[in-house]
Amino acid sequence: MNKSVLPLFREVIGLGLIGLFFYLFLFIDFQNLSFDLPSELLTVNTMFLSILLEAIPFILLGVFVSALIQTFVSEDFIKRALPKNALIALLPAALLGAVFPVCECAIVPIVRRLIKKGMPLHLGVVFLVGAPILNPIVFASTYYAFGEETHIAYARMGLAFVLSIIVGLIIYVIFKNQNQVKIRKEILVGQLIDVAEEKSKMNKVKSTLFHASDEFFEMGKFLIFGAFIASLFQTFLDRNVLTELGSNELLSPAIMMGFGFILSLCSEADAFVASSFGGTFTTGSLLAFLVYGPMLDLKNTIMLFAFFKTKFVIVFMVVVTVVVYLSTIAYQYYFL
């Protein structure tokens, strides 16, 4: 098969499978079929749909706002908005992340471009870990997902703001302003450049719609996977085991951090998955999931290794993991 046709063929197959998946879950009544399904599978179906349908509106809102920023806000403007002093600039960098709702799916290449245009490495890191969480859309989705437990939404924003500054400061101490962006021209970078050039030929409306649709289907795959795995965990994992793991104040945050890393959910939707574990896992472990996942997950780790030097990525992963874990343990001890 022609190499130029193969990627398109894979995309068509992928979209077809997603469409079939939605059709089966939304329009087929399994209870009326001629064969009997185990009650556990019907429970999985119910929990999966409840998570998915609550999350989709926030994803749609998030991708369109992100697309507008991608099209109409330049990286040069972001760079000019930051002070020159390395330490003083940490606070504005965190505040900047709160203004621009960029999903973690898109934040890595954006930060790479900012650094190549002159933004200091540690400020790029602040933006990298803060922007996916510190924005109104993520706050609204978290606030809505946890219902009466509104303190979780405020705690998530507060922790993300403070930790983004701490992580940026640690990276500054370790690397100063050393260049950690890979110099060689990789295939992935070439593809992104081609996409950027193609978008520059479009008008701004078409570019916005193109970016929004592309990001929606990219995030949708991870949302479906995460919601499905969460519903499986809730249905089939022994409740006694789950309760024992979730009530352990030292172990449960680490478990939920690992869960957040593997699921690689979008930050606009992860609160709905986290809320499904409410009452089983501690509040601190839910916060660990909500803070750690957007900062560091499987999909953006792959992109980090593609764009940045290996030593920097490893140090960054260790710093984020240790800081998030210790901060959630401290939050549990002092505030709960």
UniProtKB/TrEMBL annotation:
Its membrane topology: Multi-pass membrane protein
Q: Does the keyword Transcription regulation apply?
A: no
Q: Per its UniProt record, what InterPro entries does this chain match? A: DUF318 (IPR005524), UPF0718 (IPR052923)
Q: Where is this gene product found?
A: Cell membrane
Which positions, given as ranges, span the membrane?
12-30, 42-69, 89-111, 123-146, 152-175, 216-237, 273-292, 312-334
Q: Which UniProt keywords apply?
A: Cell membrane, Membrane, Transmembrane, Transmembrane helix
Q: Which family does it belong to?
A: Belongs to the UPF0718 family.
Q: What is this protein called?
A: Uncharacterized membrane protein YraQ (UPF0718 family)
Q: Which organism is it from?
A: Metabacillus niabensis
